[in-house]
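Let us work through a complete example step by step.
Step 1: write down the sequence.
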Amino acid sequence: MAAHREGPPRTPWLRATAAGAGAVLLAAGVGWWLLGPVGGGEARVVVVPPGASAWAIGRQLRDAGLVRGPASLVAAAALQRRLGRLQPGEYVFHPSQSAWEIAGRLARGAVRLHRVTVPEGYTVRQIADALAAAGLVDRARFLDLALHRGRTLGRPWLETLPTDSLEGYLFPDTYHLPRGLREEAVLGVMLDRFEAAVGEALRAAAAARGLSLHELVTVASMVEREAQVPDERPVIAGVIYNRLARGMRLEIDATVLYALGQHKPVVTAADLAVDSPYNTYRRAGLPPGPIASPGLAALEAAARPAAVPYLYYVRRPDGRHHFSRTLAEHLDAVRRYRP
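Step 2: predict the structure and record it as tokens.
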């Protein structure tokens, strides 16, 4: 039998295979190092300006200690096919996040959101103060749009209003907004929230009373500012409609304070003399428009008031009101609760 002879060892092929595998492992290691997280530490806030290139954003991230270098972000964005889609804005990133994850969030526009609460009964000026304090709007530009150019904001229902002011129509709620939005966009978010809150059922209830949307919101704003206790909102609305039906002046202190442009704990006789279409002690009927932003409960009360016989009310020390049918009853209550 012939002896078996082994062939020569294929060392060149083995060496090439080993070299190739080593190169792959090296490339994988470099890729992991390049795209992987930098390490630990506190979260960082990064503001990406409009028009910034991926390389420029990468430099920002490197300087903030979030990536190893600009190439880290560029490579991650390119591999995700999002290189030209990184969005500006304010972001919060953590060093434990990889460049891959950071690139994804930049491409999605997952910007930092700021929580701001607009309470019921705030005026446009108070809303502007709250948003400006949170760094979300330029106060002067916000007020110019909200008070003088509201109907330019592209909402068809705004064109039906008899005013350019958005007083009363910026819905009170808690908002989560990113910095960098234009004032038009911030107003749009609040107007859309109002439109969603005032649904068809509420509009129909108002129309059944012969009220336009503007009149509904005007009544609701007075209810919002006058009522301190939730269950009194429909009653106060009922008093307002009773007085209107009899041709009586509304004589609501909140309208005087709106005319004065300030809040005071006590309205004086001198205050009641202020010459303003919002002074319901001097002018009959509804004021020209809302005096604040009413919440949903006040809007519901204005659309569905309580059927009450009262024509007067006075606030008691505990925040509730005493309601009266006649002027004599009312004057007696005033002497009792406001000596």
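Step 3: interpret the result. The mean pLDDT is 89.
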